[in-house]
């Protein structure tokens, strides 16, 4: 079952990759989209693919399953981490490949990126005011597709011995000063609505 509010349209994918895990795609939809760009070896090939997939039909969307179906582990050598040093170049490549979509929906793309920036500023301001430590929440539930997972993995591997956690849980061995490592992301399965 897929919840209505978990469906993602092309505009949702302009600012970041909204689909952080395993996906199921109809063979015809895969072929119609042109598949993955095999030249994209540095990362973001899934984001590029989803934009291509969503551009094939007017009614195309990606549905996100509301419950966890897989465990996704991110290692420090994962392309999720290593691609961050090339993030701007990779975004340029994606924008170039989907130029017409970005031009047509420039406002949605820019406001989506700004919304991500504002949420990070709010997180930082809350931390600086000492109201509570939002870092623990962020590291247990990092954002996906916008560098959040990569940041959480980098922070956890530099600051402490990683703790294994399930999404939404704090390990019983953790103390208030420890930051749990994001061994898993909130997991999803995606499908397309193509018939």
Automatic annotation (TrEMBL):
> Any idea what this protein is called?
Glycosyltransferase, group 2 family protein
Compositionally biased intervals (Low complexity): 173-195
Which terms does the record give in the GO molecular function aspect? transferase activity
Amino acid composition bias (Polar residues), ranges on this chain? 158-172
| Domain of life the protein comes from | Bacteria
Region annotation Disordered: where it falls in the sequence = 158-195
Is Transferase included in the keywords of this UniProt record? yes
Q: What is the lineage of its organism?
A: Bacteria, Bacillati, Actinomycetota, Actinomycetes, Bifidobacteriales
Q: Which InterPro entries match?
A: Nucleotide-diphossugar_trans
Report keywords, A-Z: Transferase
